[in-house]
Amino acid sequence: MGKLNKTDREWQRELSPEEFRITRQKGTEAPFTGKYWNTKQEGTYYCRCCGEALFASETKFDSGCGWPSFYKPITTSVIEEQEDTSHGMLRTEILCHHCDAHLGHVFPDGPEPTGLRYCVNSASLELKTQEKNDEDTYP
């Protein structure tokens, strides 16, 4: 699948102002405020912008940092990394490979087996669970 290219105007029509600020302008939500920072539901986390599957709930862990944290993506090919020197720090930014959405940052202080912590903004994600809809439960 090739790169998804849209104008800022197109993204603004599809995303909330907060989602646009975070995913397209490299913003960050405040810790302990995002929708998924403490979620324990099972499912798959997708890119809010393009729908690319990014992280499985089995790889989510409580890092105590206030953002959803994962020790690995679904596959390494769905995440791109870039050096980030903003705010006087040296960090590694993570982006969706398909649409270049800003997701967050990756740090070398996660649990085994990878030792990595993919620290992701909730506004960059959409969780799809395995739970059935009421229509599927009742004939």
TrEMBL record:
Catalytic activity: L-methionyl-[protein] + [thioredoxin]-disulfide + H2O = L-methionyl-(R)-S-oxide-[protein] + [thioredoxin]-dithiol
Coiled-coil stretches noted in the UniProt entry, renumbered to this chain: none
Cofactor names: Zn(2+)
Name by which UniProt lists this protein: Peptide methionine sulfoxide reductase MsrB
Similarity-based family: Belongs to the MsrB Met sulfoxide reductase family.
Keyword Oxidoreductase: yes
Enzyme class label: oxidoreductase
Active site: 119 (nucleophile)
Name of encoding gene: msrB
InterPro entries referenced in this protein's UniProt entry, alphabetically: Met_Sox_Rdtase_MsrB, Met_Sox_Rdtase_MsrB_dom, Mss4-like_sf
PROSITE patterns (UniProt xref): MSRB (PS51790)
Keywords from the named record: Metal-binding, Oxidoreductase, Zinc
A GO molecular-function annotation: peptide-methionine (R)-S-oxide reductase activity
Signal peptide (from-to): none
Classification via PANTHER family: METHIONINE SULFOXIDE REDUCTASE, METHIONINE-R-SULFOXIDE REDUCTASE B1
Domain MsrB: 8-130
Organism listed in the record: Acinetobacter faecalis
EC number: 1.8.4.12
Segments for region (Disordered): 1-22
